[in-house]
Write a structure and sequence with these properties.
- The structure is a single chain.
- This protein is an alpha+beta fold.
- The protein has two domains: 78 residues, no CATH class; 39 residues, no CATH class.
- Helix content is 58%, strand content 15%.
- The chain is built from five helices and four strands.
- It has a two-stranded antiparallel ribbon with strand order 1-2.
- The longest helix has 19 residues.
- The radius of gyration is 24 Å and the shape is elongated.
- The protein starts with a helix and ends with a strand.
- The structure holds zinc ion.
- Zinc ion (ZN) binds next to loops.
- The site of zinc ion has 8 residues, from loops.
Length: 137
């Protein structure tokens, strides 16, 4: 067995039964790294400390053997941020499709509606409530 195989094997042994990475861990990692950069550039000690705390907590969770508790934390995080993550991904979609579609909000029920670009003046019928309104797309 080569040197790197030994390292890989001992790391696998070390990680067995431990929790590892999850969505909450990823967010902590990236937030920690970004805060750490901002903190050191702006010379804000508090932000740097906060970044360190986040990264330490992230590592502690990753190496934790209490999988049940860590899974529960991740579940809580996913539930609490569901709306925000959904809105962010909708926004990303809108940016991605902005050349093909125009987006309108129904004035009555606030449902978001998508219309192909370049069709001119049209009457949009809301899929949610059936309200009709004129727009230029
Ligand atoms: Zn509507």
């Amino acid at each position: 067995m080569g040197f790197f195989d030994k390292i890989r094997a001992s790391f696998a042994r070390f990680m067995s039964g431990r929790y590892g990475a999850d969505q909450l861990g990823n967010v902590m990692l990236w937030t920690g790294l970004i805060l750490s950069i901002i903190g050191s550039m702006a010379k804000l000690g508090v932000v740097t400390i906060l970044a360190d705390v986040l990264l330490v907590v992230m590592l502690v969770r990753m190496f934790s053997k209490d999988r049940y508790k860590r899974q529960h934390e991740n579940q809580m995080y996913l539930e609490k941020t569901y709306k925000l993550r959904k809105e962010a991904s909708e926004w990303m979609n809108r940016v991605k499709n902005s050349k093909k579609y125009r987006y309108f909000t129904c004035p009555q029920c606030k449902k978001r509606l998508r219309v192909p670009r370049g069709v001119g003046k049209i009457t949009i019928t809301c899929k949610g409530c059936g309200n009709k309104f004129d727009k230029k797309a």
